[in-house]
Each structure stands twice: as C-alpha cells, then as structure tokens.
Specification:
heterodimer; A: mainly alpha; B: alpha/beta; 9 helices
Chain lengths: 355, 265
C-alpha cells in the first residue's frame, strides 16, 4: 500500500485547541437557556408575593405544564433535524385526546358517571393506546403527504392542522368530553413522585431517550444527515422517504401521548386550550438551538426551551400580568430565538466564504 | 480486523487485473423528455486503470456515469459490473456491487463530522443501532492516512473544511466503500491548481490499489497525464476510446469539437 507520510492536503489549525468540557458546554445554546431559566425563576420568585413562585407546589405545576410542551417540542426537534416542519402538532394533540376520551367513554356503564367503569385500569390503557395510535396515524398521514407526495411540510401540516381540528370538533360536536375514569387524574395526571408529576417523569424519560438517539445512534445520525443535505443522504444509499415517514410517525405518537396527558390532567378533553401549542413547541425547540434549516438538533436545548416557555407564562400569571401579554412575550421570545439563529447562520456562511 | 477483510476483497480484484473490465456501459441510450442525452455511449474500466471520460458540455458524461451508478435507468444498452450484466434500480444496487462515486457536488452533509460523513449509509453499530464511533474514527483515520490525506480533525463538521479537504474526504469515502471501481464526476472542477494536482495523484493512488477509476474532467492537460485511457463522448455517442499515451491535447480537442464542425459543414 502507498504509505505516503507527507501531508498532501494543507493542514490549517489556527489555534483549534480542544477546550475543557465545561467550557465547551457553556458555549452551547442549551447551557445559555438553562442559565436564563434559572435567572427567570430567581426573578419571578423574588417578585412574587411570599416568594410563592419558588414554592414546591408551584414547581410541581410548572413541571406538569412542561411535560406537554416538551413532548411536542421533542417531536418537532426531531422533525426539524431532518429539515421538515410540523404546524399540526396542536391539532394532533386535540384529536388524539378526543379519540382517547371517546374510547374510554365507550366502556362507561352509566352515562355521565365517572365512577361507573368496571375495570378503570384496562380502560385507561385502552385510552392511552387509542390516543397514541391516533397521534401516530396523524403523523403518518403527514409523512405520506410530505415524503411521498413531495409537498412542502409547512403547507402539508397547515392542511392537516385544519383537517385535524375540524375532525375533532365533528367528533365532539364542539363540547368537551368529560366524566372519564377518576383514577386517570388521581393515579396519573395529578399524581407525583416527590414534586415531580408522573407525566413529567414520562416526558423526561422520553427526552433522555431521544437525546441518546440523536447523539449516539445510527437513526439520529441519518436524521441529521437528511436535514443537512437530503441529496447527500440519498447518495449515501439511505432510504430518505421511509426515514421521514418514521420521523413523522414518531412526532405524531408523541403528540398523541401529550393528548392523553391532557386527559389525565383535566379529566376531560380541552378542545379550546391548544391553539398556541405549536407556538410553544417551536419556541422551545428553536430557542434551544435546533436549527430551522435542519442538520442540527439540541434535545437538551428543547428541554430548557420548553421550561423557558412555561416559566415565562407562569411567571407573568403570578405577577398578575394579563394573560394576553403571555402570548406577546412568548411570540417575542420566539422571534429573538430565530434572529439568533439567523445571526449564527450568517456567521457560519461568512466563515465558509473566508476559506 | 475489518480492514483486513476489505483488503482481501481488493487483492482479489488485483488478481482480476487483466483486460476484463470491472465496470462497463455498452451502447447506452437515454432520453429525458425531448432531449436525447445518450445515443450510443460505451465506456469500460479495467481494474487498476484510470479512464478519463471527456467531452464537450452536454455530451452526456454525467448522464453516463449516473447510469453506471443506477441513478438513471437506460432506455437501451447494458451495464456490466464484475463481468455480469446488471439491472440497477438505484445507487444502493451499484454500491452493493462495490461501485461508489465522488459526485459533482460531493454529496457530503455539511453539518456532520468527517467520520460521520465517511460512514453515512455504512455505519458500524452495536445492539439497537448504537454507533461505534471509536471504531469508525479509527477506520476513517486509517483510510485517510492510506491515501496520504491529512486533516486537522476528523470530528469537525465538514462545513469547516476547505474545498480541497472536502474533495479529499469525498474521494476517501468512495474508495473506502468500493471494492470494484470509483467513479468521479469532475473531482477537480472547483479546485485550484495545487489541489487539483493532489486529487490527480489521489486517483493514481486509488488505481494502484487495484480499483478501476473512471473520471470525468475538463482539465485536459492534467487528465491526459493522470489517465491510462481516454473515452471521448460527443452528443451522447462514444467516438473514441484510446490509450492516453497515444493522444495529445490538440487531438482530444479536435475529437471533442471536430465532430460538431464536421456536422455543420
């Protein structure tokens, strides 16, 4: 074999020395958002009456809110990593919760009586399966439209956002479905281990799993490859369309799970409460450092980003600021995040041109 | 370990080094809508040899290479790999037969590291699809070293590399996964003189390892020096196949454009 020792390609290592792990971590967006989270918690605690924002009870309720935003943000982060978008997550959540509720209600023995379920455990499992399966199917439909019909993901999911919301309203006639098994709330939604609600534990476990997938698995590598350059992924022999279908199914299933968590929190569907879910999920994923153009996912960033969205909303409530302002603040935070994104992209392209 | 296995495959192809082509296209025709991209295009590549595919713009060079890779399906004619007529349904079919390519746009994912790019589609995993990054890094390092390519780091994103470095990574990746032939579509188009020289040397190194090399190039003086054989395409037709040593640049230019002059007269 030719063992050429000479350096054929000029080496350019202008001071590219590895920084210590802690310094490298501090340079990540996720680290900055975590610091911002902590600062905001401090500020809101100091400003709230009797420092109630810093109380264990408030943390418990914050974590419960985070669990749903986070599930949507995680799915969205994975999709963004592969370069596709999903506007329909909120609609998916609602439709999945409706189907889950309807399935559970079909086992009810006395109409309107939340105590009249013969085997609540089995009924709840059926509801969970129905909600997750609905979400997964919703995602698959998105995936088929995006990957196989070749329609832009923004337009595709804008379409399914409308359809999903409409179907949910048709199924319910526009009024929420209640009188679900009581254990749904007592055992899951309003049950905690310490101050950590069961739904939050679930979301955090899924976040850890996806973090490992992105960082250490072939699936994560291929997801990022598709987002970074779809044609490069195709030329490398990856079945891109099948992969995208899998991702949209995953994002959908997570939205379905978030829909089920809705039922466990409130004991009923919440048809009107999710119009701004997509806003929260996009904010969480993007502010955490996941790139809109694809090729880069930060799961840790999505976790701290979801926390930021929830902390901001809750903090403003506790300070007695009108709820209308919450929307404005979260929207503004999203814009700031996207602008930071643009700046980073500009700096990158300049660095490339300088070569 | 795995490297040893790869070498055995190559020494087998070394022993096949005779006049039998490892990769060939015979009488390929291909039409895209109203455009007859290829009429009667043939080319053949022998193990250990560098074959230059030249021709004017629109002569069908890239289309022919894409046909050999299974990216295009020919309307008529046949593709032969390893002595067998094959029906390729996609690039995966060509890769499965040991043929890989350096594409015109390099087909690298800019956000991924050098190692991840080199193993994309061929990842080494354990258990439920977990990457063996240590092994992958060692193998990538060995593969680059063998070709005499030095990079500042294998873990930096490809977007941080210079044009020549990216080109070298694309070549090394194709060589790593080829056991039969490497096809290169204008590997030096975007490079400066010095880097083009390096890539030309790289082609010779690759051929010396027993692989067939097919290269599209517009850089006639350089490719005449680097190639063993030259195939000239003119309007989708193969009009000349000759040893490079028998040709001069003016000869080649005359063949590439001469047919056009003849037709116009």
């Amino acid at each position: 074999m030719t063992d050429t020792t000479a350096t054929m390609i000029p080496v350019d290592d202008r001071g590219r020395r590895e920084a210590p792990a802690i310094v490298r971590w501090l340079r990540t967006r996720a680290a900055w958002i975590l610091v911002l989270d902590l600062v905001l918690i401090g500020v809101f605690t100091a400003l709230s009456r009797d420092n109630v924002f810093g109380s264990a009870a408030n943390f418990e309720s914050l974590l419960l809110s985070v669990s749903q935003v986070l599930l949507l943000a995680l799915g969205l982060a994975m999709l963004l990593g592969a370069g596709i978008f999903d506007l329909s997550l909120g609609a998916n959540l609602v439709l999945s919760s409706v189907v889950g509720a309807l399935v559970m209600r079909s086992f009810q023995q006395t109409p309107g009586d939340s105590a009249s379920y013969a085997d609540p455990g089995a009924v709840i499992l059926a509801g969970l399966a129905a909600a997750v399966a609905t979400g997964l199917l919703f995602g698959l439909v998105n995936g088929l439209i995006i990957a196989f019909a070749g329609i832009n993901s923004l337009i595709a999911t804008l379409g399914t956002l409308g359809i999903g919301t409409g179907v949910a309203l048709l199924l319910t006639g526009g009024s929420d479905i209640g009188s679900l098994p009581r254990v749904l709330q007592t055992a899951i939604g309003l049950n905690s281990v310490g101050i950590v609600p069961i739904p939050a534990i679930l979301s955090i476990l899924i976040a850890i799993l996806l973090w490992a997938v992105v960082r250490y698995s072939r699936y994560g590598l291929r997801t990022l490859a598709i987002g970074s350059s779809r044609s490069a992924a195709e030329r490398a022999g990856i079945r891109v369309r099948g992969h995208l279908l899998g991702l949209t199914a995953l994002g959908g299933a997570l939205a379905g799970l978030a829909g089920f968590i809705d039922l466990t929190r409130f004991g009923s569907t919440v048809l009107s409460g999710h119009a701004n879910d997509a806003l929260g999920a996009v904010t969480a994923a993007v502010i955490g450092g996941t790139l809109l153009e694809g090729g880069k996912v930060s799961i840790a960033g999505a976790v701290w980003g979801a926390a930021l969205a929830v902390i901001l909303q809750a903090g403003l409530v506790i300070l007695g600021v009108s709820s209308f302002w919450q929307l404005i603040v979260v929207g503004a935070v999203l814009l700031v995040a996207v602008m930071l994104d643009r700046l980073a992209a500009l700096r990158r392209s300049r660095a490339v041109k300088a070569d | 370990m795995v490297d040893a296995a790869a070498r055995t495959v190559r020494s087998e192809s070394d022993s096949m080094e005779n006049s039998t082509p490892v990769v060939a296209a015979r009488h390929i025709a291909k039409r895209f809508g109203h455009v007859q991209a290829l009429r009667d295009a043939s080319v053949s590549v022998t193990a250990g040899r560098v074959v230059a595919l030249v021709g004017d713009n629109g002569a069908g060079k890239s289309t022919l290479v894409k046909t050999l890779l299974g990216i295009n399906r020919p309307d008529s004619g046949e593709v032969v790999i390893g002595g067998h007529v094959v029906d390729l349904h996609g690039i995966r079919d060509a890769q499965a037969r040991g043929v890989d390519a350096v594409h015109q746009d390099l087909a690298l994912a800019p956000d991924l590291s050098v190692v991840d790019n080199m193993f994309l589609g061929h990842e080494e995993v354990v258990g439920p699809g977990l990457l063996r990054r240590r092994t992958m890094t060692e193998r990538a390092d060995a593969a680059l070293r063998e070709l005499g390519i030095a990079l500042p780091s294998l873990t930096v994103a490809v977007r941080e590399l210079s044009g020549g470095q990216r080109q070298a990574v694309a070549v090394a990746r194709a060589v790593m996964w080829s056991s039969t032939a490497v096809l290169m579509d204008e590997p030096t188009a975007a490079l400066g003189a010095r880097q083009s020289e390096i890539i030309a040397d790289l082609m010779r190194t690759v051929a010396a390892r027993g692989l067939g090399v097919l290269v599209i190039s517009h850089d006639l003086p350089r490719i005449l020096k680097a190639a063993d054989e030259v195939t000239v395409l003119w309007r989708g037709e193969t009009v000349l196949e000759a040893p490079a040593s028998d040709l001069t640049v003016p000869d080649l230019v005359a063949t590439m454009v001469g047919y056009r002059a003849e037709e116009q007269s």
